[in-house]
Structure formats: C-alpha cells, structure tokens
C-alpha cells in the first residue's frame, strides 16, 4: 500500500507542477511579479490607440529620460488611467516645460509611472490611487505638436526612463494595443 500512495503523491506533484507551469506560460508572470512589475495600458479597458512613437523612437525618445517612453495617440481631453496602483508624487505643471501638465505615480516596487502633456490632472501629491483610476485628461501641453499621452516607467529620483513592458509586451510604433485596464 505504501508504494501505491507514494506513486499517487508523485503523480499529484507532477500534475501540480505541470499545471503551474502551464498557468505561468499563459499569464506570463507569477502573481507577485504581476503586482510589482506588471503595468496596464494607461487608458480604459477595451480601447485601442496607436503607438505614435515607441521606445527608442527617432523623434523625441532618444535621450536617457525618454528612451523607453511611449506616445499614445489619445484625443484631447480623454481619460488617462493609472497603469498600476500607487501614490501620487507629482500632479501639476511640470518644472520641465517640455512635459506640460504631468502626473507621476510611485508604485510598491519603487518605480514611478509618468504621464505627460495632459490638459488636466485630478489628484494631489500624497493621494493614493488604485490601478485603473482616471488621473487626468490627455492633451497637448508642453513640447507637443498634437494631442497624445506620453507614458513611461521612470526612476522616481532621477526621472530617467526604465525599460518596461505593458501588459506583458513592449508595443512598438504603429501598433494598436488593446487595454485591459478596468476602472477602479
């Protein structure tokens, strides 16, 4: 009997490992990494907007501050959503005129997300916002030639861009990623 129960336990362990591996393959991340390093698209779920300039773009994403940024072709005064829960660090006209009105959110993993060229921001520094919460409206403030959202993950202290994925991939210029970022 003992050998039969050993076989059953081993089979159960193998099945459990296979199911876990399949789940990781399908989701692309463990729940802990999803909470810490998974960023949603910064606009409402079910919607799709063109990436007008992706990371390493030749127009304005060439320096350390913007090299990993995305520009999304959102229309003016459209909802900009927090890509991950966090605390508002900055929400006003930027001290760097090129950014216009900006929102910066610090996340539990120590990184910040940056939303620039907004027409309006809604929260104050110190406010906590859940993932999916509308934090402002898109616009064309600062060094912008048309309404859009400039979005990136940054080092909170230096504002230098950090390589990141959104919803598990890195959308490139010309793609139309569909958001799964539900309202909070």
Automatic annotation (TrEMBL):
It comes from the Bacteria. Pfam families: Peptidase_M23. Residues 1-34 form the signal peptide. InterPro entries: Cell_wall_metabolism_enzyme, Dup_hybrid_motif, M23ase_b-sheet_dom. Keywords: Signal. GO terms for molecular function: metalloendopeptidase activity. Residues 68-155 form the M23ase beta-sheet core domain. SUPFAM superfamilies: Duplicated hybrid motif (SSF51261). PANTHER family: MUREIN HYDROLASE ACTIVATOR ENVC (PTHR21666:SF270), PEPTIDASE-RELATED (PTHR21666). This is Peptidase M23-like protein.
